[in-house]
Amino acid sequence: MTTTAPLDAARRSGAASDWPWTEALSVVTRVSGVMGLALDTVFRTSLLPELPASRDRERARLLHAIAGELCAMHALRVRVTGALPAPPFVIVANHVSYLDPIALASLTPCTAIAKQEIGGWPIIGERARDLGVLLVDRQRPASGARVLRSALRALCHGVPVLNFPEGSTTRGEEVLPFRKGIFGLARIAGVPIVPAAITYDAPELCWAGDDTFVPHYLRFSSRREASAHITFGPPLGDHGGAADLAERARAVILDLLSL
């Protein structure tokens, strides 16, 4: 009688011993790719036009292109349900990972609002500034006002704005109350709010709590592939005040997430 059990066991053993090398190669390849893309971004942003309106629009296109390149580099597939309206508009989304703005920006040219701490991240922080990401220090009202003025200028130039009004990440089991500033800005600019719900195919892609960036990113970059699912709700008009608009947007996202 012939049995394949020893051969199967050997194959399993070989696969187990080979897989860490595959992971390591994936990490090295992707980290090298990110560093190369960061250097390329320095060159590409140096070619941006000087006029503010043209510069805002071209930076938004460049952020969109680079986000798409990052998704491809990390085999992050972004599946979409729903559609975006004609720009300009404000996208507001639940926030579960540093991957969220990359996944969303890969879908449309835009500028993004992010926390000030990102500006201190190795490689990423300076390139985020180059790409027009608006960094806000939530402890300083003057910083928030400056960022909202810059976001208003972008909207006036026809550039969509991406924001995560929870102000912090969660593990996807809840949606924190929304900060109101971006909703007041949308009313002033006369543009719609587009609610977006984002989920991932693996809970470990969430980045929240005590997670630190570098170890989490290395684990993410060791994966063969990953998948994000973004669902856009219907655009919301400015009926009522900013607080009402924030509550309506949050309710839509909760419904899209079935929470």
UniProtKB/TrEMBL annotation:
Pathway: Lipid metabolism. Keywords: Acyltransferase, Transferase. GO terms for biological process: phosphatidic acid biosynthetic process. GO terms for molecular function: 1-acylglycerol-3-phosphate O-acyltransferase activity. Residues 89-201 form the Phospholipid/glycerol acyltransferase domain. The keyword Cell membrane does not apply. It comes from the Bacteria. The keyword Acyltransferase applies. This is Acyl-phosphate glycerol 3-phosphate acyltransferase. It comes from Sorangium cellulosum.
